[in-house]
Amino acid sequence: MHWDPTYHTNSKALSCNPNTPGTQFGMYGDYHCDPPLLLLDSAVKAMYNIKSDVDFLIWTGDDTPHIWNDTILNKDVVSAIIGNQSTILRQMFENKTVYPALGNHDWSPKNQVPPRSDQLYDTIAEFWKYWLDDEALVTFKQAAYYTMMISNKLRMVVLNTNLYYDSNKLTEAMPDPGNQLQWFDDLLNTATLHNEKVIVVAHVPPGVFEKHRNKHWFYPYYNDLFLFLLKKHSAIIGSVHMAHHHTDSFRVHYEDDGTPVTSLFLAPSVTPWETTLPDVMGGLGNNPGIRLIQYDRDSGRVLDIHQYYLNLTKANLDSTDQWLLEYNATSYFGVPDMSPSSLHDLAEKMKDDDQLFSKYYKANGVLYDPDERWVEEMRIVHYCAAVNMAYDRYDECIRSMEAVSGAVQDISRLKVFPILVTYWLVSLLMD
Ligand SMILES: [Zn+2]
């Protein structure tokens, strides 16, 4: 959500990009800034109005504004912001369980989420004790990960992947920060014995950012270990839900023989904030998004995603917040469900089908700029990121796709050549 408490309609808030033009800002927010409380309230009310009687809620983290320096955004401010948003969710969804994950911005100094107990973990645990059981609170206070049963046979596992983020200097070159990987492996071994299925939630995803040629988040060593565990336990992992990119995308993980075994979903953000990351390809921001996930209660697999959005420009112009259905994933993408094999087929089809990729691309930015054009290089990066979360495989994918795409360009140049020759001959004959 990235709430900016300093947001004001007639002055530049602290989270606004330095190049923000003008001094007037929309009541529901601005693409250059993190959002006002009004937008957060609006998003949570829209969630309630769309469907109040849900099984549970997933909150994928990152609650404080960008850019703030760490002196302003100290631990007291961070905990106050997380506390306020926890209250908003608790009051709106009174009797529902929210499974929150900690984001890299839910800390001070930002990204430095520690692999050991800390007073701030204890403070956040106080906000979340209404949702988390005693056992979950114990591990949360150790390093911000936990597990709870959703039902008899379906388990929620919330991980603190900020420990693997390469901006986190506290966890560089550790064998297993917070002992989380060992805990995750042991937990899923036991879950397998008990015939349970699992839904995994975290903030920072493994793999590569699909809007950038060379941007990944995990230290390479942790990326490998994490992907190894996802593959090892793929038989019981129904789905994985993460965030951090602010974009709407998906990832597929595979067995060594190429069988697609895991679906990983990247949910778009409520904040419309345009990224300041250098060399991002395409639009920098997004419209605020929320999603309703239809899932199989036995397996934890995702059957469909109902993605909703707020057209921020229109909301500000009309002074009203009308959240609309952006798509139902199955009918929008023409797939039977969101299983690993369906997502694999979708990714493979997008490689050649311009219209299908355009639909995915619009959704990727939550209709931020529906007229935006993409170029082949962007499609290659989106595709390779979606089907290769291992860094070396992603690099190999880019290399081979660009070799093919280069060959295609060469052929099209050859097609032009005979036409030019013909034209030249015709010109000669006419002379
Ligand atoms: Zn983040």
TrEMBL record:
Gene3D superfamilies (alphabetical): 3.60.21.10
The processes (GO biological process) annotated in the record are:
sphingomyelin catabolic process
Domain (Sphingomyelin phosphodiesterase C-terminal) spans 260-401
Location comes to: Secreted
For this UniProt record, give its keywords in alphabetical order, as a comma-separated list: Disulfide bond, Glycoprotein, Hydrolase, Metal-binding, Secreted, Signal, Zinc
Per its record, what are the GO molecular function terms? metal ion binding; sphingomyelin phosphodiesterase activity
Q: Which InterPro entries match?
A: ASM-like_Pdiesterase_prd, ASM_C, ASMase/PPN1_MPP, Calcineurin-like_PHP, Metallo-depent_PP-like
Give cofactor(s), names only.
Zn(2+)
Lineage top rank: taxon: Eukaryota
CC terms in the record's Gene Ontology section: extracellular space; membrane
Q: Where is the Calcineurin-like phosphoesterase domain?
A: 30-220
Which residue windows are transmembrane per the record? Answer: none
Family according to the record: Belongs to the acid sphingomyelinase family.
Name-wise, this protein is: Acid sphingomyelinase-like phosphodiesterase 3b
Organism of origin is: Paralvinella palmiformis
